[in-house]
Amino acid sequence: MAIRSLRLRIQIWHAAILSLVVFGFAGLTYWQQSSWKMRETDRELAAAVEVLTSQLATIPKDEFAALISPGAVADTNSSRANATWQNLSVPDTFAYRRVRNRFEMPYFVISDSTGKSLKTSTQRFERTPPGTIYPPRQSSTYVLLRRMGEWREAYAQGPAGTTILAGRFIGTDYRDLHELAWTLTAVGVLLLFVGLIGGWIVSGRAVAPINQIASVAETISASELSDRINTDSMDREFAGLADTLNHAFDRLESAFQRQSQFTSDASHELRTPLSVMSMHQQLALSKPRSEDEYRETLAVCQRATQRMTDLVESLLVLARLDANPSPRWSTVELGELATNSIEDLLPLAEPKQIAVETQFEDSVFVRGDKIQLAQVITNLLQNAITHSPVGSTIEVFVNATETRAKLRLVDNGPGIAAEHLEKIFDRFYRIEADRNRRESGGSGLGLSICRSILELHRGQISVSSQHGKGCQFEISLPRVPASPDNSAQNLNPVD
Amino acid sequence: MRILVVEDDADLLAGLSQALRESGYAVDQADEGNSALALAKAGSYDAIILDIMLPHLNGREILTQLRHTRSTPVLFLTACDTIDDRVEGLDLGADDYLVKPFDLAELLARVRAMIRRHHDVRDPVIRMGDLAIDTNARLVSKDGVPIELTAREYALVELLAMKRGGLVTRTFIYDHLFDDNHDSMSNLVDVYISRIRSKLGKDFVKTRRGEGYFVGN
């Protein structure tokens, strides 16, 4: 089962690591302490054995043999050797530790090769001497150690086959070590406990910004998109997360704003024709009218209806481009497409005596939706015809570079002031002075439709203009080689 | 009463003007900002119906500039429908705010109310002695008996009634009774005055020679 709480997981890891460290350290301390104590004891005992050995070495060999022979009488031997034998002892200096009772004093046993005890210290314990030391060693200073329960002993080969053993009670050391073990355990548990509480608090503080971020993010809804997470007093790691979220909120907010701006613009645009209709209908119905007046009312209503129809059409085109951009891809010859659009719009140009001059490069192919691309050219041309003065010329060029296909449309209309140039592709953007729709007839959506279509085709649309000297629109699309198969293919180069 | 209608949509402008004229108002028109401001500043209008989205100069700018010199009642008639738009419009000094699409009857009622407020008239039926002038029904009655008046005659009676207790010059009457389409002579005012005298009684309006006309309370 996975633990889903970060804080709990941090705490568990923290506890594991902390106990490992605390108890590892305690164990190391204990081991160090006990081995130090044992080594100390061992050195002490080895020294005692060596002292005894060196004392015995002062006794001549033959005297020593006599001294230890069975049935030897103490008094009969030479007084000097005898005195040494009698006063054989481990010096007090070896019991430098504070001795709590006499058992803790070092003791010694000298036994013969049969294991029979020849001489013992005053603190003699009823313990079995080691007997023959295996493996027997020639070196008299070689010390072997053995541990027997609460005693620790060292022994070595003495002269004439004797064994010299020195030992010490180490029960007290063991009790000290036990005490140390308990102290270490208690301190370790306490440290662990304090560490865990501290860890819980620290991890709580560490995850607190996450909760703060979450609570702010929760309050940010569609109606309250302006709130942001305050990153001023936040740690770098969380500030990064909060910044990321804030940027996401920014994008969300601007998308919402664009959406609501679009909706409000659309309803705004629908209001005027609706007002016209309702106004004229109420006026017509307010009193009996002549047939001509009714006709006029109907004509006005028809114009308003046409305007609303155009607007709704444009809105639908845009909505479809936004929601489900699925062009019917085919290979299109740009010049041919432009020619068709121009022919369609000639009836609009003729009454104003506007000439459309073309200069098309051959075989400029692009991939795209024929109808959508034709719409782009038609929209641009229609704008040009609407804004061009009577008797002027509109030029249309199609040419290509290695990778791009270009269509350029130049008119001699009034042009567009610089401050409007960037915005003319925005939805419902209409140049103030051009608001009289009776003349321009536009919905304010034509150029944004062009831009949407071109974005879908990985193309660009740009405009340059000098106020009063006409303007020039250029669309650019990825060029494709001429394809013998001109039919619709379901290959979609965008996705 | 003379009204300026400012609206950039030609069909709407025509319809509004016709509706107002049929209600007995003299109507001037403007379809863009600059001419609207010039007209509003120069003319003596009893009310202005102002669109906000206009070419060249928008309605808000027109109102701001107009308020420096004139207190003409202004009604914003606009498609800008948000609360913020309305608050801003009214705070700029507009007297009323109506959102498109609107009801014609409501617009006319609001214009009447605005004009009454401007002349400090509370009762839509103005009573002067035995005369009752119903500004809603556009009817004048004497002792409960309706008097038949032409639209122009009624407009003159209403104008004088609104201005009762004060001196009214002939120019004032001329300016408020006829719009720019009218190129009649100003002595037409005298003709109308004599007509309403004959219908409402000689004492309704007194002539102050060389100054103008006076209507008592």
UniProtKB/TrEMBL annotation, chain B:
List the molecular function annotations (GO) for this entry.
phosphorelay response regulator activity; transcription cis-regulatory region binding
Give every OmpR/PhoB-type domain span.
123-217
Please provide, in alphabetical order, the Gene Ontology terms of the cellular component aspect for this entry: cytosol; protein-DNA complex
* Annotated CDD domains: REC_OmpR_PmrA-like, trans_reg_C
Swiss-Prot/TrEMBL keywords: DNA-binding, Phosphoprotein, Transcription, Transcription regulation, Two-component regulatory system
Q: What Pfam families would the database entry show?
A: Response_reg (PF00072), Trans_reg_C (PF00486)
Q: Which residues form the Response regulatory domain?
A: 2-115
Q: Which residues bind DNA?
A: 123-217
Q: Which GO terms describe its biological process?
A: regulation of DNA-templated transcription
SUPFAM superfamilies recorded: CheY-like (SSF52172)
Q: Which residues carry this modification: 4-aspartylphosphate?
A: D51
Q: What is the protein named?
A: Two component heavy metal response winged helix family transcriptional regulator
Tell me which species this is from: Rhodopirellula sallentina SM41
